[in-house]
């Protein structure tokens, strides 16, 4: 797909570009410190360009998720990340490069899949050098994409699960963020009940079992919602 067509595609999916998240909310959904999210989104040469001054979009959330994987899961230097983002933003005309393109890594450099050959990767952190596809990272597979590559849904790596030391490939997918459901609030994937509704009842004194029966959820889903909102000790 040509770069201009890809840009048009992203512009047409307006719900994914609305500034509905604060830096603190994005931090909670990605297991990062709010100061880290702010540093990545508020600098003059921000790695993630905010949807607007009012807040961050779902595409921005996906970008921060990818950036967290690149920086913290794989230890790629910030300089190489910055080179890769600048290259893709400029050369491939991408408004949200970390969301629009599927980055992969060998632990040293960042690669973006070439449009004409899915087995060929462009070494974005070295300004376009070509290499053969080596690795698909489990962390990045938590982004559910449409057939055209557009990110539709994110299964977040949030603070409570990250703190348990669970590998990304084994993290539960019981909570999702989808801009077309509940205005982008985190929901339980079993029946799309907003997490904050479940946790609100728990805080009010309802038992896990009662909440599960009330909404037709498994107790595991209710417990995961509580862990997401209140932390691993809940």
Task: Give a written overview of the molecule.
InterPro entries: DUF433, Homeodomain-like_sf, WH-like_DNA-bd_sf. This protein is an alpha+beta fold. It has 2 domains: 1-154, no CATH class; 155-234, Winged helix-like DNA-binding domain superfamily/Winged helix DNA-binding domain (Arc Repressor Mutant, subunit A, Orthogonal Bundle), CATH 1.10.10.10. Helices cover 40% and strands 13% of the residues. The chain has 10 helices and 8 strands. It has a 4-stranded antiparallel β-sheet with strand order 1-2-3-4, with helices on one face. It has a two-stranded antiparallel ribbon with strand order 5-6. The radius of gyration is 18 Å and the shape is elongated.
The H/E string reads HHHHHHEEEEEEHEEHHH
* Overall pLDDT confidence: 74
Count the E strands.
Answer: 8
Give the DSSP E fraction (strand runs of 2 or more residues).
5-15%
Structural class: alpha+beta
Radius of gyration, CA atoms, in whole angstroms: 18 Å
Strand order of the largest sheet: 1-2-3-4
| Helix content, binned percent | 40-55%
Distance between the termini: 46 Å
Shape: elongated
The poorly predicted ranges are 1-7, 114-136
Please, how many domains?
2
What's the tally of helices? 10
Largest sheet: 4 strands, antiparallel
The gist of it:
It comes from Hymenobacter perfusus. It holds the Pfam family DUF433. It contains ten helices and eight strands.
């Amino acid at each position: 797909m040509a770069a201009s067509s890809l840009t048009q595609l992203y512009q047409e999916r307006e719900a994914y570009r609305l500034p509905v998240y604060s830096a603190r909310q994005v931090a909670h959904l990605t297991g990062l410190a709010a100061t880290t999210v702010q540093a990545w989104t508020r600098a003059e040469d921000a790695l993630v360009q905010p949807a607007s001054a009012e807040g961050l979009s779902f595409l921005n959330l996906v970008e921060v998720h990818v950036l967290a994987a690149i920086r913290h899961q794989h230890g790629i230097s910030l300089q190489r990340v910055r080179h890769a983002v600048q290259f893709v933003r400029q050369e491939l005309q991408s408004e949200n490069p970390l969301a629009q393109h599927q980055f992969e890594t060998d632990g040293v450099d960042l690669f973006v899949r070439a449009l004409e050959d899915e087995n060929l990767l462009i070494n974005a952190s070295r300004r376009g050098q070509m290499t053969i596809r080596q690795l698909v990272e489990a962390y990045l597979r938590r982004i559910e994409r449409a057939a055209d590559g557009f990110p539709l849904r994110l299964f977040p790596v949030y603070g409570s699960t990250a703190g348990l030391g669970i590998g990304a490939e084994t993290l539960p997918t019981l909570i999702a963020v989808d801009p077309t459901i509940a205005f982008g609030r985190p929901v339980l994937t079993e029946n799309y009940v907003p997490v904050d509704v479940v946790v609100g009842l728990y805080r009010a004194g309802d038992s896990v079992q009662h909440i599960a029966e009330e909404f037709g959820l498994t107790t595991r889903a209710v417990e995961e919602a509580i862990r997401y909102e209140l932390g691993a000790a809940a």
